[in-house]
Amino acid sequence: MKINATSRCGLPSRARFNSLTAIAAAVLLLLGPGSATGRADILFNAPSANYSYYGMYSPYATAVSFTLADSYYVSTIDVVLRTPPSTSFNTFNFSLQSALTGPMTVFASESLTAPLGVMSTQVMTVNETLLPGTYYLAGLVPGYAGTPVIPGNVDGWLLSTGSYNDAAGSIANGVWFGSDPPIFESAPGYPGYVAPAFAVIGSAVPEPSMWAMLALAAASLPAVCRRKRA
To answer: How much helix, strand and coil, in percent to the nearest 5, is found in the chain?
Structure first.
């Protein structure tokens, strides 16, 4: 006698598999194309011009600001740095924060160590969901100001080209630096006061309506299991 394999909930295994596959496909559709692969997108990019840099021989932070138009999950931020061939100060402290002065929220901070004598891209981990609004990425080299250096050959943050990919909102075309609080300087076109080179990596956050549809899809699972064999 031929016996058809059945699932625990009484639904034939093939039919149950097909139902779950359909629900899983709906979930992936709701969450977006990046959810199945873990792929992150470039939310902002101010590409490096690979030459000039903002010197960070200062006790004050150098910063760039960007504005998110919607909520996004930010995984990492890349910054393009340079150091002279001989220095004891090649650690840059970066933080992502809500303001440059007064009460502020720090969403992420990290000490980034750059190799000596070259330009390099360093990665700061964020792993935070950020709401629509303006954010500041600020960096400084602790203990560096006042130490002996060769003029014109100091730690720095590379200038961008001044042409931005700002699909998730907008990048302020300029730089904050020079005092506490920092002063914003802007001059269009490279090598004026453009944003320093950085990139924000992350993904869109599903709208509440999408989460509601996802919950509805999940709620349908018990109904699948209650179906009786024909």
So the answer is: 20, 40, 40
What is the maximum alpha-carbon separation in the chain? Answer: 90
Q: Which of 168, 174, 156 is nearest to 75 (CA)?
A: 168
> Which residue carries 């005092």 as its tokens?
179
Burial of residue 157, with CB atoms counted within 10 A of its CB: 0-12 exposed, 13-18 middle, 19 or more buried: buried
Among all chains, which residue has been given the structure tokens 């002065």?
101
Residue 63 has pLDDT above 80, yes or no: yes
Give the integer Cα–Cα distance in Å for 196 and 78.
11
**Token duo for residue 227:** 């179906």
**Phi and psi (nearest 5°) for 81?**
-120, 165
CATH architecture of structural domain 41-204:
Sandwich (2.60)
The predicted model gives 2-28 an average pLDDT of 44
Reported as type and span, the H/E element at residue 81 is: strand 72-82
What per-residue confidence (pLDDT) applies to 96?
Answer: 98
- Which residue, among 39, 67, 36, has the nearest Cα to 202 in the 3D structure? 39
Query: What does the pLDDT read at residue 20?
Result: 45
Residue 26's SS3 state is: helix
Q: Is 78 left (phi over 0), alpha (psi -120 to 50) or beta?
A: beta
Q: Which residue has the tokens 């992150």?
A: 40
DSSP letters, 177-193, are ESSSSPEEE--SSTTSS
Spatial separation of the C-alpha atoms in residues 112 and 164, rounded to whole Å: 24
Q: Is the pTM of this model over 0.90?
A: no
Contact between residue 70 and residue 99 where contact means Cβ atoms under 8 Å apart: no
